[in-house]
Design a protein that fits this description.
Elements: H1 4-10, H2 13-40, H3 57-63, H4 66-97, H5 104-116, H6 119-129, H7 136-142, H8 159-184, H9 188-196, H10 201-212, H11 214-229, H12 233-238, H13 250-260, H14 264-295
Helix pairs in contact: 2-14, 3-14, 4-8, 4-11, 5-8, 6-8, 8-11, 11-14, 13-14
InterPro entries: ABC_transporter_permease, MetI-like, MetI-like_sf
Main location: membrane
GO cellular component, one term: plasma membrane
Length: 296
C-alpha cells in the first residue's frame, strides 16, 4: 500500500501541473473575493470600501428594509413554483419523449430551443407576449372575447407569476433533456419485468423509475435552485422590478445598492445573504452525493 501511494501521486502529473493555475485562480479570485465580500459586509462602506466596522448594523438595516423583504417573498414564490412546475413539466415531457415517438429529434430540438436564448431575450419576448395592447390579450380580444383580461406584468399582485411563465418556458427544456438521459439509462429488462408482473405504468414510474433517477433529480434540483437564487435578467428585461417594487428580487437589490445607490456595505450584506442561501442548497447536495457514497 505504501508503495502504491507515490505512484498515485505521480500519475497524470502533467495534467495536475497544468491545473495549478486554474486552482490558484479559483482559490484567490473566487474564495478570496467571497471572503472579502463577507468581511466588508460588516463595514460602513459607501462609494468605496473602507474598513470601518459597524457590526451587524448592515444586516439589521437590510432586514428592516421593506424592499428587501418584498424581494425575499418574491424569490420564495418564484422559487417554489419554478421548482415544482419545472420538475413536473420536464419529467412529463421526458416520459413522453421516451416512448420513441416519431420526429422525436425535431420535438426535442423545439422544446430545448428556448434554453439557447439568453434570459434578456426571453424576458423581452415575454414582455411583448404579455403586453395587453400587443400580446395575447390583444389577440384574444380581437378574436371576439372582448372581456378577456391577461396582463400579469401590469398587476402588482401577480406580476411575479408573469416572470415565472417566462422562466419555466426557458428552463423546462433543459430539465426534459436531463430526465430523458436518465430514463434512457434504465435497463429495458426493468420495463419488461414490470409489464410481465402487470404493474400499471404510473406505478412503474412512481415506485421504480423515479427512485432510480435519484442522482438525476438531485443534480436537477441544484441547477434549478442555483438559477432561482441568481434570478436577475428576467426581472430587468420584463419589469425592471415594477410595478413599483412588486417584482423586486435579491440580485437586483444587490446591483442597485452597489452600483446605483453607492452603498457597498448594504450590497455586500445582501450578497452574503444570497451566498448563505446557495450554501443551504450546496451543502445538502454534497452530503447526499458524496457522503452517501462513502457510507456505501
Amino acid at each position: 500500500m505504501a508503495s502504491e501511494r507515490p505512484n498515485r501521486l505521480y500519475r497524470n502529473l502533467t495534467a495536475k501541473i497544468a491545473a495549478i493555475p486554474m486552482i490558484l485562480t479559483a482559490v484567490c479570485v473566487f474564495l478570496g473575493g467571497t471572503a472579502w465580500t463577507v468581511v466588508y459586509s460588516f463595514t460602513n462602506s459607501k462609494l468605496l470600501p473602507r474598513a470601518k466596522f459597524v457590526g451587524l448594523d448592515q444586516y439589521e438595516r437590510l432586514w428592516g428594509t421593506h424592499r428587501w423583504v418584498v424581494s425575499i417573498e418574491n424569490l420564495m414564490i418564484y422559487g417554489i413554483c419554478s421548482l415544482v412546475l419545472s420538475l413536473v413539466i420536464g419529467f412529463v415531457l421526458a416520459a413522453l419523449m421516451d416512448q420513441k415517438i416519431r420526429f422525436e429529434n425535431t420535438f426535442r430540438t423545439i422544446i430545448l430551443y428556448p434554453f439557447a436564448l439568453s434570459f434578456i431575450v426571453t424576458g423581452l419576448v415575454w414582455q411583448w407576449l404579455l403586453n395587453p395592447d400587443l400580446g395575447l390579450q390583444s389577440v384574444v380580444r380581437s378574436a371576439g372575447w372582448v372581456s378577456f383580461n391577461f396582463d400579469p406584468l401590469y398587476n402588482a399582485d401577480i406580476v411575479i407569476f408573469g416572470v415565472l411563465i417566462a422562466g419555466i418556458w426557458q428552463g423546462s427544456g433543459l430539465i426534459m433533456v436531463l430526465m430523458l438521459a436518465g430514463l434512457r439509462g434504465i435497463d429495458e429488462s426493468i420495463w419488461k419485468a414490470a409489464r410481465v408482473d402487470g404493474i400499471p405504468l404510473w406505478k412503474t414510474y412512481v415506485f421504480i423509475v423515479i427512485p432510480m433517477l435519484r442522482p438525476v433529480f438531485i443534480t436537477t434540483l441544484v441547477l434549478i435552485t442555483s438559477g432561482i437564487v441568481r434570478l436577475y435578467d428576467l426581472i430587468v428585461a420584463q419589469t425592471s422590478g415594477g410595478p413599483g417594487i412588486a417584482s423586486e428580487v435579491p440580485a437586483k437589490y444587490v446591483y442597485d445598492y452597489m452600483f446605483q445607490g453607492q452603498n457597498l456595505g448594504q450590497g455586500f450584506a445582501a450578497s452574503t445573504m444570497m451566498l448563505l442561501a446557495v450554501l443551504i442548497v450546496i451543502i445538502p447536495w454534497a452530503y447526499l452525493e458524496f457522503g452517501g457514497k462513502k457510507r456505501g
